[in-house]
Amino acid sequence: MFGAVQYQGIKTAVNAVRKGQTIEFKNSLWVVNGKEHGVMGRGSALVKLELRNTTNGSKCVERFQPSDSVEVKQAHLEQYQYLYTAGDRVYLLNQETFEELELEKSALEGGEKLFPMLEDNMVVTVQFIESAGPVAFRLPPQHVYTVESCTDVVGHSKGATYKPATLTNGCRVTIPDFVKAGDRILVDTAEMKYINRA
What residue ranges define each of the domains in the chain, with the CATH number in brackets? Predict the structure, then answer.
């Protein structure tokens, strides 16, 4: 008999693993929340993966040699609509079948720091692994938000001038000087950065 986890996957070099993918590691499924390349003491390279366990939500950082390989699980993606949050649970709705899905807040790809970017009725992408069910969800790459307040920049500069702003969801971003309170702007949700006016 094989190990406890038996999902179809593809052996992949750790260097090729991407943020958001699900891997099998230590007989469990883990979602890659972050990836960083580094150097060890004698100049040898290493790859650090920030991982979140899909079963219990625990997190860890594991170090690998670039030549190491892991099994990346094949996933399929589905669109769901965000409904509400209760405690540490998020409730989503499949717009085709009207089935409700419940996930942990920690299943948000990119970490809970991005949670304030989630808005009512926002369409999110849920990652499913065959036989394991939903393992993670992600925000759309870009979304339109309203600027609630901003601090005007004093004095003039020759180059482009930027100022801090607070969105209606409470998140802070840096915006160009010509954007005013009440304007709707397009924001990169992963980086929480201004893209342009909507």
Answer: 10-73 (2.30.30.30), 75-138 (2.40.50.140), 142-197 (2.40.50.140)
